[in-house]
Amino acid sequence: MKKVILVTLALAPMFAFAQSTGRFGNIKTLVEGIGDIIKIALPIVVALALLAFFWGLVKFIFAQGNEEAKADAKKIMLWGLIALFVMVSVWGVVRFIGSAIGITDVGGSITPPTLSF
């Protein structure tokens, strides 16, 4: 039963993208879908990495006098910075690849509200 479910889930994208028009419609739709998922998840993960960095900073400040606690806080800050670097790099690489293959960011920019006088 599990094998049938796994095979169905593995083949479902082929059927879902079967109605696309154009020669590379399926691939473009797949890449755009992955881009949408990354666009939603990236700010959340970046916020968690920033939170981890600040958590390590707070632990470092309050660990004065305890060298072991300071070392643990430094590790948390370091991993928070590494996570921030990786996430922002992934964001840049995805945008670069998207622009290189011609996928435009439709509706991605938010216009700030303005006041009319």
What would you note in describing this structure?
74% of the residues lie in helices and 0% in strands. It is an all-alpha fold. Helix 2 (25-62) packs antiparallel against helix 3. It has a domain at 35-103. The protein has helices at residues 2-16, 25-62, 67-100. The protein is extended and about 65 Å long. The mean pLDDT is 78.
Provide a concise account of the structure shown.
With 117 residues, this protein is mostly helical. The chain has helices spanning 2-16, 25-62, 67-100. The chain is extended.
List the topology elements.
Blueprint: H1 2-16, H2 25-62, H3 67-100
Helix pairs in contact: 2-3
**DSSP helical segment count:** 3
Helix content: over 70%
Estimated share of beta-strand residues: under 5%
Q: Mind describing the biggest β-sheet?
A: none
Describe the global form: extended
| Class based on secondary structure composition and strand pairing | mainly alpha
Global mean pLDDT? 78
Order of helices and strands: HHH
Number of strands: 0
Any idea what the radius of gyration is?
22 Å
